[in-house]
Amino acid sequence: MTKKNRNPVTTRKGLSANVWTTIAVVTSAVAVTGGVLVVNRHDDLSGPRPGTIGANVLNPSGSNALTAAPAAVVTVVEFIDYQCPVCEAYYQNVTKSVERDYAGKITFVARNFPLPMHPLAVPAAKAAEAAGMQGKYRGMFDKLYGDYPTWALTADGQNVSEDAGRAQARFDTYAKELGLDLVRFHADAESPMVGNRIDRDKADGSEAGVTGTPTIFVNGTRFEPSGNTYAALAKQLRGLLDQALAQ
């Protein structure tokens, strides 16, 4: 089975009930058939489905763009939780390549939506926002997801970690690798400005109908993934982008 076909549970062998529970809560309609991810992601099927959401909610001034196109016809907004294993799997198998392949064509915005079952989600969001205040948001974003097991999971890789000290040590390493002023990085991470940014992201996400992560919007319309592999999800998302770019 190739990496693109692996699901966020089986990509890390031996994950405990802790992570199984996290994934079940974060993505409430995930099934595994024959070891392959099957996604029909609806966080709350009993509630109303949002229509097109305005840019003032999804992409307000000052939002962090991973890629930006001058006069972008297409804007993608993803609400994320840095410690969410499904978000990391999407990053590895779907969105990282979209950011690369559509650079200069679309604007791709990341918004924070830390979930309460992930104790390190807020510290990670603070690290990303603090890096952004020194112009290195995307660099920190890539390091947090690219090096996910070393801070987000326990040392044995079997549980979601609660070790804030271990995580902060990794965040400091990333900050040094990105050439950040470490004293400023620490001060910014704990500043009211960063806290307010995270709170606003969460409030905007809730207003847009976000209840789990990852949740993606393309030009204000929620992306509803279907398919039984990450390759299928990536193809579906790319199809929407190509269609929007062609209009």
TrEMBL record:
<dbReference type="InterPro" id="IPR012336">
    <property type="entry name" value="Thioredoxin-like_fold"/>
</dbReference>
<feature type="transmembrane region" description="Helical">
    <location>
        <begin position="20"/>
        <end position="39"/>
    </location>
</feature>
<keyword id="KW-0472">Membrane</keyword>
<dbReference type="InterPro" id="IPR013766">
    <property type="entry name" value="Thioredoxin_domain"/>
</dbReference>
<keyword id="KW-0676">Redox-active center</keyword>
<keyword id="KW-0812">Transmembrane</keyword>
<keyword id="KW-1133">Transmembrane helix</keyword>
<protein>
    <submittedName>
        <fullName>DsbA family protein</fullName>
    </submittedName>
</protein>
<feature type="domain" description="Thioredoxin">
    <location>
        <begin position="55"/>
        <end position="246"/>
    </location>
</feature>
<comment type="similarity">
    <text>Belongs to the thioredoxin family. DsbA subfamily.</text>
</comment>
<keyword id="KW-0732">Signal</keyword>
<dbReference type="InterPro" id="IPR036249">
    <property type="entry name" value="Thioredoxin-like_sf"/>
</dbReference>
<dbReference type="Pfam" id="PF13462">
    <property type="entry name" value="Thioredoxin_4"/>
</dbReference>
<keyword id="KW-0560">Oxidoreductase</keyword>
<keyword id="KW-1015">Disulfide bond</keyword>
